[in-house]
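Q: Structure tokens for this one, please.
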Amino acid sequence: MLLSDADGLFAALAALKLPRGEYVVCGSAALYVRGLRARMGDLDVLARGEAWERALALGAPESTVSGYGLRVVHPTASIEIMDRWTQGWSTDRLIDDADVIDGVPFMRLGDVLRWKIAAARPKDHADIAAIRHLNRIWTGEAAPLSPSFSAVQGLRQPVAEEETPAEGADVRSLPGVRLSD
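A: Here is the predicted structure, written as tokens:
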């Protein structure tokens, strides 16, 4: 594994030896690994089958913060392993459709965007803007911001300020967003 982070979270994840095709890394780590975040606080891992069984060996499962599903908290690293994402999300689809980066499966950016918009948390506004900006770069609608601007902002990649849509808004109709299933 080539991925690294200051807190050693990717190394701790690799040490779990979760089987390929049985888990996906979700949340902020999916942005961090793509350079859209300067740091991440923890790893949120969605697991099924053998990967979930290995997670259970780490400790007793408890309810997730959302109350939807169970989670196991790694005893020494900031890693939470869940058996379900949030309500309305298919565990199998998220795992099966993952983007594999340096051998680690990560949630697709379109899914991260949809999830963060649906969660409607103030802390997600910058992440939503970063994904939208990257999409505009990919489609040729925007140029990357200069590296000096990113460094001044403390970011690995540019983040644009944009208004977050209201809860329940149809993400597919948002400007600058093209998602595929």
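A few notes: The first strand starts at residue 23 and ends at 26. The CA atoms of residues 8 and 77 lie 8 Å apart.
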